Amino acid sequence: MEPFHGTTIVSARRGKRVAMGGDGQVTLGNIVIKQSARKVRRLYHDKILAGFAGATADAFTLFERFEAKLEKHQGNLLRSAVELAKDWRTDRILRRLEAMLAVADHEVSLVITGNGDVLEPEFGLVAIGSGGPYAQAAARALLDATEMTPTEVVKKALTIAGDLCIYTNQTHTIETLD
User: Fold this and answer.
1) Catalytic: which of 7, 8, 27, 151?
2) Pairwise CA distance, residues 22 & 77, whole Å
3) DSSP result, 47-88
4) What's the rounded Cα separation, in Å, for the pair 142 and 85?
5) Would you list the DSSP string of 105-158?
6) How far apart are CA 65 and CA 87, in angstroms?
7) In this prediction, what percent of the chain has a pLDDT beyond 70?
8) How far is residue 136's CA from residue 95's CA, in Å, rounded to a whole number?
9) Catalytic site residue 173?
10) I need a labelling partner for 136 at 20 to 30 A (CA). Which of 50, 75, 130, 148 fits?
11) DSSP label at 174?
């Protein structure tokens, strides 16, 4: 059996306004299994946005762990992300998980990886998954050249990525923190 492959998650911000979106396509090799998956969700009393790329079961395990860290640290996103990354890297079972998380609140946007990385990309612009580079390039251009809202930027960036990446479709889930 081939592993699940591909997705696109992108997050853009203007000041404290942030939006995160993902496509809905789930593939197994070169076959589309599902077109309407929800890969972006709200966490910690709807104050944090989170999206995943990678194996679905692994991502849900990480979401649960991350939610527990957020509860423990009263919603402190950076501290919770660092604690999750430490656990992810050092725990024998967790370090086998194949996924990445993109997370954001009103203040910061981060990428959390299984290598122990907690990354804060430039410009508050986060993009992960196989369509991530396309969405990131599109979102960067839109943020620089327009006055579009973060939600509009994310929608357009996902549309562009879906036109270019065969593992990304045009069914989008977008969440916004205003």
Assistant:
1) 7
2) 20
3) TEEEEEEE-HHHHHHHHHHHHHHHHHTTT-HHHHHHHHHHHH
4) 31
5) -SS-EEEE-TTS-EE--GGG-EEESTTHHHHHHHHHHHHHH----HHHHHHHHH
6) 9
7) 97
8) 27
9) no
10) 75
11) E
